[in-house]
Design brief:
- The protein is an alpha+beta fold.
- Helix content is about 25%, strand content about 30%.
- It folds into 2 domains: about 1-170, no CATH class; about 170-205, no CATH class.
- Strands 1-2-3-4 form a 4-stranded antiparallel β-sheet, covered by helices on one side.
- The longest helix has 26 residues, at about 1-25.
- The two termini are about 30 Å apart.
């Protein structure tokens, strides 16, 4: 089963990468998939996938939609949520790179900012940041954060694809695992020292 799942992921991601290659000219990027995804200021089109029970979830974060495929490649489920796309402005792009390069030295920062000064804008901000699956087979979708936003908001779907609700996770917590009644992750102090943390998670009754 796992071997079949990996084959589906590889095949689907290959097709997704091909679509990115065609799209990259409009983005002004020519260094491959990673350049399109990461050099577009976090507002480009990013492929996502995750194993969800016996399905593989595939999609891109330019729309709030997930397609779940069975091990034989059959489309088993489509999960969607209403989302109003917002087009980024030049100010959004500048703020993103100012944040990204804030820890560089003066000359390095100036050079880095100059390299991206003429980067074209994408059509819209991402619909979401990423996805995770917890130990109860719930799908967690991290909502996209605009520049300056620190709250991490997640929309949680049950195994059938129905929305259970939204919740906020602790600021700065990098999540490793979502258990039945806990969140396991880590935070970092100003010296980039890692602290592993275990947080309680209270779930409401279905």
């Amino acid at each position: 089963m796992r071997h079949a799942m990996r084959n589906i992921v590889r095949t689907a991601l290959f097709a997704t990468a091909a679509s990115f290659a065609a799209y990259s000219g409009a983005q002004g990027a020519s260094a491959g998939l990673q350049a399109v995804v990461r050099d577009s200021a976090g507002v480009g089109r990013d492929p996502i996938y995750a194993v969800w029970r016996d399905l593989v979830v595939l999609g891109t974060n330019d729309r709030y939609e997930f397609r779940a495929h069975a091990s034989d490649g059959r489309l088993a489920r489509i999960v969607r949520r209403e989302h109003e796309a917002r087009r980024p402005t030049r100010a959004d792009l500048d703020a993103h790179f100012a944040r990204r390069y804030q820890n560089l030295s003066g000359p390095e920062r100036s050079a880095a900012l100059a390299d991206v000064a003429d980067m074209p804008l994408t059509d819209a901000f991402p619909a979401f940041t990423g996805i995770r699956v917890d130990e109860l087979d719930h799908l967690w979708v991290e909502e996209y954060r605009q520049a300056g936003e620190t709250r991490r908001i997640w929309t949680v779907f049950d195994p059938a694809g129905r929305v259970l609700g939204r919740l906020e996770t602790p600021p700065g917590l990098r999540i490793f695992e979502i258990g039945p009644d806990y969140l396991l992750g880590a935070t970092y102090d100003e010296f980039q020292i890692e602290y592993v943390q275990l947080w309680p998670l209270t779930r409401s009754n279905p």
